[in-house]
Amino acid sequence: MATPAQAPSSSPIPDKSLFRIGEVSRLTATKTFVLRYWETEFPTLQPLKSPSGHRLYRREDIETVFEIKRLLYDEGFTIVGARKHLADQAAGNGVAVGEAAVSGAHHEIAPVRSPRHEPPSRAQRKFLLDLHEELLAVLTLLERE
Question: Of the candidates 51, 54, 70, 57, which has an alpha carbon nearest to the alpha carbon of residue 7?
Fold first, then answer.
């Protein structure tokens, strides 16, 4: 997860323990409806509820929001991929997302541990997105048969 040092310097996390959703929205530059949606998609993001039902985010929740935002917007992860990445990080197993190696005669899938790579360049990301669209088109054609 992102630490306060990794959080954007323009939005340091104030020195207090609980934050309302509007504060988190301003700190992370993320709309409140997106934060509420992410709560449903990411089990690691579970703010407390006040007796009146208001969401109260802890510092670690805000760090999780920064990490989710980085994975989705900067790294290009899907929601499912980001959820898996966060779960892998929480489990501490260090398995690279989407990578596996075939081992043995039984073709068992074994996780591959890989060093951290630089995020893909803009050109690489565009290529991958174009390839994704083409593969979806091929899949659609195959499903029609």
Answer: 70
Q: In whole angstroms, what is the distance from residue 112 CA to residue 132 CA? A: 23
How many C-beta atoms surround the C-beta of residue 55 within 10 A? 20
47-90 pLDDT per residue, tens: 999 899 899 999 999 999 999 999 999 999 999 999 999 888 88
Domains observed in the chain: 18-117 (1.10.1660.10)
Cα–Cα distance for residue pair 33/70, rounded to 1 Å: 18
If phi > 0 it is left, if psi is from -120 to 50 it is alpha, else beta; for residue 121 that is beta
Contact (CB, 8 A) for 120 and 76: yes
Token match 């630490």: residue? Answer: 3
pLDDT tens, residue by residue, 80-131: 999 999 888 888 754 444 433 333 334 444 444 445 556 667 777 777 777 8
Number of Cβ within a 10 Å radius of residue 143? 7
Residue with tokens 């996780």: 111
pTM of the model: 0.56
